[in-house]
Every structure is written in C-alpha cells, then in structure tokens.
Design brief:
The complex is a heterodimer of chains A (about 90) and B (about 270). With about 90 residues, chain A is of the alpha+beta class. Chain A has a single domain, classed as Roll (Ubiquitin-like (UB roll)). Chain A has 2 helices and 5 strands. The longest helix of chain A has 11 residues. With about 270 residues, chain B is an alpha/beta fold. Chain B has a single domain, classed as Rossmann fold, CATH 3.40.50.720. Chain B has 10 helices and 8 strands. Chain B has an 8-stranded mixed beta sheet, with helices on both faces. The chains are: A alpha+beta (about 90), B alpha/beta (about 270). Chains A and B meet through β4 and β5 of A and β5, β7 and β8 of B.
C-alpha cells in the first residue's frame, strides 16, 4: 500500500530536500522500514532502538496521533497521509 | 469603563465588528497578556496586541537588540541596537498606542521567578527559542491554570496551538520530555525566513484575541502547521494524555524544573 509521508524540515537533509515522499507498507512499522530502505539513516532519527517513535517526535496518520491508535502497529491504507512532527523550539531571538 | 472619543475612533474598525463591538473592545482593554520573548515571534505579537488595544501587556526578555535580529524582529530598529529588547519594545508600543500599559521583566525565566511573573496575567504567549523555557512555561501554565498560546518556527515551517488547562492537552501531552541535545537542530544553524515569525506570531495573536473575546474556535487540541514553501496549512488533532507527567491523572512532575538550556542561548 502506498502512502504519502510528510517529512519535517529537520529530516529533509536525508530525503534530498523532499518534503513529501511515498512509502509502502501495511503498518507504521512497515512504513519506517520502507523509508529506511529509501533514505538510509532516517529510521534511527525517528525511532528508538525498539522501533517506537522517539518521545520528541509524533507520528500522525491523517489527522490522528498513532499514540492514540495502535502505536507503530497502526494499520495504514492506500492514500493515507503520514506526518512526522518533531518538537521545534525556535521562536528566534 | 467608558470610551474616550479618541478610543472610539481608534478602535472603530473593531467596534463595528459584531463579534467584537464595544463590549469586546473593553474586554481587550482590560485583558492581561504576558509575552515571553520579544524576539521573532514576540515582535509581531507585541505589535498587534498593542494595536488591538490589549490594555495590559507584560514582556519578559533579558536580551539586547542585535543587528542580526532585525531581519524579523520588527518591533526593534537599527538605532536601538544594544538596547534591552524589552525597552525597545515598550518604545514602539507606546508610540503606537498609549492605551497599553506595558510592564517589563528584564530577566531570564526560571523556576524561581516564573510564578511571581505569571501572577496578574491571564494569557501567556510563548515566543521563546529554547526547550528549557518552553517546558518551564508549560508546567507553570498547567499548575496555575493559565492558557498558553504556543508558536514555534524553523526555516520555512511553523507550528501554532493553544494549550488550555482542563480543556485540552498540554505541551507534555505531545512531547513528555525535552529532546536530548544533539538530536534536534541547533537554533543558530537553522536559520529562518524572517516573515515566518510574522505569520506564526500573528497567528498566536489571533488566537489570543479570540480567547479574550470568547468568539470562534481556538486552536485548543489542534496543531496548526504552516509549510511556507508549499503554501500549505495543515491541522492535526492533539489529545490529552491521561499519562501526561504534568496534567495527567497521576502527575509525576509537581514542581517546576529548570532544564539546562542547549539551544538558542547565544547569538
């Protein structure tokens, strides 16, 4: 299943500056693995060693936070939009 | 309170809005808003809050105006380089609208002073540049029940939301702990399109005014993301986490924490 993944600015270095990429998989875990096969190094930026997202990064399927769905086991379907949203501190003094 | 003739004229474009009217304008003149940071987000926010006639505006900042600030910090000016940002902001605000009573706090927010500074304000507009202060502000807002109007920017991307205790999630419901140093981009290396500060800072003002007026739907439980390069606004749902360490059912954080600052300390 192909889904659209929105890449946040801090990770765009790993995706050749693409803010939107396509990934394949049936669950969020699959999507992370598929992203890693396309963009080496991206998974460790998003996930802890156990495969769950780091605590300062939230993952959304469409509008919903996967922490309130099934976490990284959350199923995705064709056409879903996945957003990776890290905490951003900047207000720029 | 009664309006003076000058106030009726000054605020006429507000007063003629059915959602504002004289009653709403008085609410704004009586409102107490605290701005944390007179930098990128705080500059446009202070400017428009003052123009709107927010009667009591507190500004917290310990920094001075630097030439490299002026690409986005429009409340300051070239001739004020070296001046305290709070003083510079007050000069601009007073020139724009003498109705605004400005109170300055030329200090760094810490667990020691934050509750004293917060007292007397109903709305806290977070325009800081580092995680340490953002978590401190969040926790203090939860503990005192004050509404936190949150904004942040990075390069061409911005986020805004409203954390209203009791009505929606807090910052720790989203991100329970600050990220460790090194895993997030450093503020200085990041860069930002100056005007992005204007977009997000002013979105924070819009939300603040709506909350004061009690009109419309504030961004409570919603994260608004602005992607300037692709000209897109997206909304994501934010939920309250029952396991949140500060606003959850069994909070583990019951005292304010001074995290070590690791982003945005120097220019």
């Amino acid at each position: 299943m192909a889904v659209k993944v929105r890449i946040p600015t801090p990770l765009m270095k790993l995706t050749s500056n693409q803010s939107e990429v396509t990934a394949e998989g049936a669950t969020i875990s699959d999507i992370f693995d598929n992203l890693e096969s396309q963009f080496a190094g991206i998974k460790e930026r998003i996930c802890e060693e156990n495969g769950s997202p780091r605590r300062f990064i939230n993952i959304y399927v469409n509008e919903e936070d996967i922490r309130f769905l099934d976490g990284e086991k959350t199923a995705v379907k064709e056409g879903d939009e996945i957003s990776i949203i890290p905490a951003i501190a900047g207000g720029f003094r | 309170m009664d309006f003076t003739d000058e106030q009726i004229e000054r605020y006429s474009r507000h007063i003629m809005l059915p959602e504002v009217g004289g009653v709403g304008q008085i609410k704004m003149l009586e409102a107490k808003v605290l701005l944390i940071g007179a930098g990128g987000l705080g500059s446009p926010a202070a400017y428009y809050l003052a123009a709107a006639g927010i009667g009591n505006l507190g500004i917290v900042d310990f920094d001075t105006v630097d030439l490299s600030n002026l690409q986005r910090q429009i409340i300051h000016s070239t001739e004020r380089i070296g001046m305290l940002k709070t003083e510079s902001a007050r000069k601009t605000i007073q020139a724009l609208n003498p109705d605004v009573k400005v109170t300055l706090y030329n200090e760094r927010l810490t667990s020691q002073n934050i509750l004293d500074i917060f007292e007397g304000y109903d709305y806290i507009l977070d325009g800081t540049d580092n995680f340490a202060t953002r978590y401190l502000i969040n926790d203090a807002c939860v503990m005192t029940g004050k509404t936190n109007i949150h904004g942040s920017i990075f390069r061409f991307e911005g986020q805004a939301t409203v954390f209203k205790p009791g009505a929606g999630p807090c910052y720790r419901c989203l991100y329970p702990e600050p990220p460790p140093p090194g895993l997030v981009p450093n503020c200085q290396e990041g860069g930002v399109l100056g005007v992005l500060a204007g977009v997000i800072g002013n979105l924070q003002v819009v939300e603040t005014l709506k909350l004061i007026l009690g009109k419309g739907n504030a961004l409570v439980g919603t994260l608004l993301i602005y992607d300037a390069l692709n000209t897109e606004f997206r909304k994501l749902k934010l939920k309250r986490d029952v396991n949140c360490p500060v606003c959850g059912e069994n909070p583990t954080i019951t005292e304010l924490i001074d995290y070590e600052e690791f982003c945005g300390l120097s220019r």
